[in-house]
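Page 47, continued from p. 46.
Same chain as before, 484 aa.
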Amino acid sequence: MRRFILGLDEGTTNLRSVLYDVDLNKIVDINQRSFHQYYPKSGYVEQDATEILNGIISTSKTVLTRNKVKKEELLGVGITNQRETVVAWNRETGKPIYNAIVWQCRRTTKYMKSLPNEIKEKIKEKTGLIPDPYFSASKMKWIIDNVKDAKKLLKQDNLCFGTIDCYLATMLTGNFVTDVTNASRTMLMNIKTLDYDDELLSYFKIPRSSLPKILPCDSHFGKIKKFLDAPLCSIIGDQQSSMIGQGAVNYGSTKVTFGTGGFILTNIGKNIDKLPEKLLVTVASSLNGETEYAIEGSIYSACSGLNFLKHNLSLYDDVKKTSDMARSLPDNEGVYFVPAFTGLGAPYWNNDARGEISGITFSTKKEHIVRAMLESMAYNTKAVFDEMKKEGQRFSHISVDGGGSNNDFLLQFLADMLNHDVVRSSTSEATVMGAIYVAMLSLKLIDKNGIIKLSSGKEVFCPNMTDAERKKYYDGWQKAIKKV
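Result:
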């Protein structure tokens, strides 16, 4: 009998259903689709949660049908998802009362700035997060304050709040649940107790009853009956899933993801006694009854900047050309691109910053701007690594995944900036593979050592830049950052 795991990967701009053959240890089919992004006002970013749910169901049915997967052949399902994005829906009807508010949305910037310093300090102490509109809590409060019928539903105890994983799990299984990695990004969960914190709930006036039950990543979350009768046996936020998909499961192992944004997570084990000043601490995973943590730096704009150059400025028709375009130049000739389209994330945390291209002369060509955008991803990553080093963190292994990991120029420049070997992930599907591996752990089909073995990357980029060159490039970046 064939044996399969179905991985559901719900990202910021695309969703996909991925069929994994347990015995062949490989992905055998992927069905993917994009979904609409809505920008009703400057700084606002929204999505249609119903469109996302229907897309997940449709793509899942497609891969299962065209591979003729029988009920008994599908062992389990795993979900990984964009984090922090909030859905609010009517408990009785299951219908969203407003568009999903996306993690990129900055509509609550003014409110978050207005919080007293003592509350901001308490949030950081309890959640490991830097108070910011990036996270879910202020989005939930905005919905309560601004969406028709939200307060009425709250009084009736019929308003549900959840991140995307929770909405999908609830609609597919009937169980109002989330996992600890996604809950750790809401700014409502205490990372030490792994439960919602009453004091945090009171700050944002969010009742506990409107929030889902928090479970470990490898829990049995319920049975999915919308398509075949299979258990949902893993939920994990996309960046934590990427860690597992790249085998970053031991202390000191680091993963970098270059997708819409950039995300750097380093495994710090079970100890969270000291919280970094300019970086986040988040739950890395909760598996086999053990919870581990990660130190994280989040970059708001990474490959989204490359999309901007393609769609808004028409500098190329295929992103695959950008590596050769960058390598056609001997250096950047002093051109820098700060892609602060929606502000700057770690370690700068400036929501008011906006993008800038600097150092332009009459000799500047489109290749310089493309190279500057690619370089910016490496500079911003180095800034996060430097901050981690200040906190005493050391790095044993650095692996890179996401769409940007396919760019040879970027990975070589990243190795040069970090002065450390960088490994290209063995699969461009590391994020969904994390959810699949967690499902396999839940089903006792694999252990942690098995994950490391299956996920080991082979293509290594070694630093090949002098200290003087590195300093020259990075000094230019620091000057550009100060301007914004």
